[in-house]
Write a structure and sequence with these properties.
Blueprint: H1 21-29, E1 57-58, H2 59-64, H3 74-83, E2 98-99, H4 101-104, H5 107-115, H6 117-120
Antiparallel strand pairs: 1-2
């Protein structure tokens, strides 16, 4: 089977629960051990999982993961949090605040934190 998605086209993948949608994206990303074939992608691609791993530590570390927190400026991180409307939800918590963010943040806030990877890592 072949799938071609051209620049400017959008694809919505729908299927029953447990049918392998996540495995499909893992194969595209090259991180599924049982996949074969070739995928051609132009430019940089960011895959954001439905549930991101959020390490314990500072808020900036949680957002920068898997990069180190010094990979991004405070301003870049604040802009990414603002882009997903987490800046107001976090209230007076600062980027240097340490916590177990998987406990502190609600499920929806955790998804938005994962989504903040996109504006933070946007291609130049």
């Amino acid at each position: 089977a072949g799938l071609t998605v051209r620049q400017g086209e959008f694809v919505l993948l729908t299927a029953p629960e447990g049918s392998g949608k996540s495995c499909f994206f893992r194969a595209l990303a090259g991180i599924w051990p049982d996949s074969t074939g070739v995928v051609h992608m132009r430019g940089s691609v960011l895959f954001v999982p439905q549930r991101s791993h959020i390490p314990q530590g500072t808020l900036k570390q949680a957002l920068a993961y898997p990069d180190s927190e010094d990979h991004f400026t405070d301003e870049q991180v604040k802009m990414a949090l603002s882009a997903v409307a987490l800046d107001k939800a976090l209230g007076d918590r600062g980027l240097a605040d340490e916590a177990n963010w998987e406990i502190i943040l609600s499920g929806g806030e955790q998804q938005r934190l994962g989504g903040a990877h996109a504006p933070l890592r946007r291609p130049p």
